[in-house]
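hey so i finaly got around to running the thing on Cobalt-precorrin-6A reductase from Rhizobium mesosinicum. pasting the sequence first so u can double check i didnt mess up the copy paste, my clipboard has been acting weird all day
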Amino acid sequence: MEKTRILILGGTSEARKLAAGLAAREDLDVLLSLAGRTQAPANQPVPVRVGGFGGVEGLASFLAEGGYDLLIDATHPFAERISANAAIAAERTGIDALALVRPEWVPEPGDHWHIVADIPAAIAALGPAPRRAFLATGRQGAHHAEIAPQHFYLVRSVDPVDPPLALADVEYVLERGPFTLEGEIELMRRYRIDAVVTKNSGGTAAYAKIEAARLLGLKVVVIARAPAAIMTSVETVEAALEAIDHLVSPAMKRGV
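ok and heres what it spat out for the 3d tokens, dont ask me to read them lol
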């Protein structure tokens, strides 16, 4: 039986769950691609490749030379470049493509959100007066905090910030989600946080900090997502599995 070849662009919990849902299928040959930015990635249920492709041309060549039938973009909502490259590469090679994009967070009653376009704007939104900020944007881009050294920063990331920030008043927490509401409240109280800076990553694994800030009455500076790449998309792993079933069905492969 000829197997359908699927390349998943991953790095998220959704990508891992999707791969797990496909791993046992004998009609599929699944490869999960990770960018390699995390030093110790979680174990994965399917074969993995690590590293970039070399832009659109490199990804298109990888898809064509590997004989892939389906490309799934299950990267982080803020991995804009790889998502854009994926959409173009799929179009160039003529293969089916699907994006798994977790829903955005939306403000609820009691939230004190200030929405900005990027990390520099988020740091600026903290204002000139010294604040105690929880920088929950990961290590990439954390150096932008150096433009406002008057604040205290609590920086949380999976891997260490390297080089460390050139700031006098900064502390680091190395943790991987998911996080609990109780844990986030305790963390914010321990460090006397009065403002949270976060990307609008969506999903449930990191939402506890939004809930904690709401309950504590804190300002939350939210970095908005860029417009999504043009690609058929779904919001859940279950919907992705259903879409994949449709795309790789015998009738679809025959063009019926």
